[in-house]
Design a protein that fits this description.
The structure is a homodimer of 269-residue chains. Chain A is mainly beta and 269 residues long. The first copy, chain A, contains 5 helices and 13 strands. In chain A, helix 2 packs antiparallel against helix 3.
Chain lengths: 269, 269
Amino acid sequence: MSVHPFDLAVALQPQADGSFLGQTSPAYANMVGPFGGVTAAQALNAVLLHPQRLGDPISLTVNFAAALADGAFSVTARPARTNRSTQHWVIEMQQQGEVVLTGTAFFGLRRDTWGADEHPMPNVPAAVDVARASGSARVEWVKRYEMRFVEGAIPVQWDGADQGQSRTRLWLRDDPPRPLDFVSLTALSDVFFPRVWRRRPVLVPVGTVAMTVYYHADLALLQRTGSTYLLGQTEAQAFRNGYFDQTAQLWNEAGELLVTTHQLVYYKE
Amino acid sequence: MSVHPFDLAVALQPQADGSFLGQTSPAYANMVGPFGGVTAAQALNAVLLHPQRLGDPISLTVNFAAALADGAFSVTARPARTNRSTQHWVIEMQQQGEVVLTGTAFFGLRRDTWGADEHPMPNVPAAVDVARASGSARVEWVKRYEMRFVEGAIPVQWDGADQGQSRTRLWLRDDPPRPLDFVSLTALSDVFFPRVWRRRPVLVPVGTVAMTVYYHADLALLQRTGSTYLLGQTEAQAFRNGYFDQTAQLWNEAGELLVTTHQLVYYKE
């Protein structure tokens, strides 16, 4: 049985000083450096693999301080505060002694409580009834995901016409399919192409600066979801002076909200 | 001329080791410890006052690792990476040698670009035509803000009936009015009462765990807004196993989007 490329990509080797050593993965290469979703997943993995880790991820924020160079990196996760059932982490990734990522994470033990999903999954055709995106992918990492666009696919005409809105909805999963876990869910939270290209199709340079992921799913819900499709929805709220935000949600096919996420993206023109 | 209570609350004294010393403010006291919005504002202020600071705030994430005790705290801001026109910061707040807050911030110089506000300000009556919330405030910090609820005010009947949604819209500003800056805008991003009380009026214990603020406004826009009202809108996306998220937007009276913000909140029942 072969190892899934995602597992190879996020693998970390513990070092004697408590840090971890990782490698960028050619299978998840972006235009410059690696796909940020995998970098975020590696940052989370440094906490997940840490011997002092308590509970499961509930919140993660990563800041991309510089484009990662292809090759090795070190990542440290420090438990800044451990409470009875919660834990706060500070994360840092370095290459050649320079910081390339900063982050924080909040982990905890979950309890049964009253609950409700307030943001409902939109009414869309089932994944199997939506055509898979084809055509030549501009970058390698895109080939690691099956994407079925319900609305707002990557523009075909880069004519710069303001679309008035930036929403995209798509079914997505790892390719080949892989049972969902917190690490892959983190990467899946970043698969949306930049909203500035959707709102106004011009191939301006872009780069995610910061991303926050709120995990509403616990381990049982992830296992129940397995390797089935997730519905992703994303849209921007504002584009202003070189930066825009994009919010996103990920539901499983049963309509359960697994993740809400937000990111801030640099754009140039 | 007297000093505004907010300026007293967020004041920091630089220490010889590069850290800052602050004090919680009785004027912004919460049920237990201080109002988290002011704590977040103090964290941001440690970067704003730092001699190596480059540019203006674009993104801030704070994690509340423990309830602050009333009294003194120290806060350190470390420039983890400085690029040509951007800068990444790591922030930590301590009391009695224990971490009470972790955070990261992204600062930068802004440039003129194409832009658009995608999330429009909702159609609501003007601030002066909406009654100011009255009644006895349960906590002190609420008295430091003028709040005019358009929709979804704090429940009167705590009957536990599921409202089906959690949206609140209100006009708000500092009381007494104070010209807007990045520090006060940070605190204003956290004035919304917890969505779990709105969705299902039961006074369950709550506490913000993490908050991210994306600043779409630059200094010129803040100055243009001055001490006029902001319209705030907030709602939850999911309540699950002890945690819920809430998203929010703040516009000025001209309908310009100043901030988008998200937080994750603990709730018990």
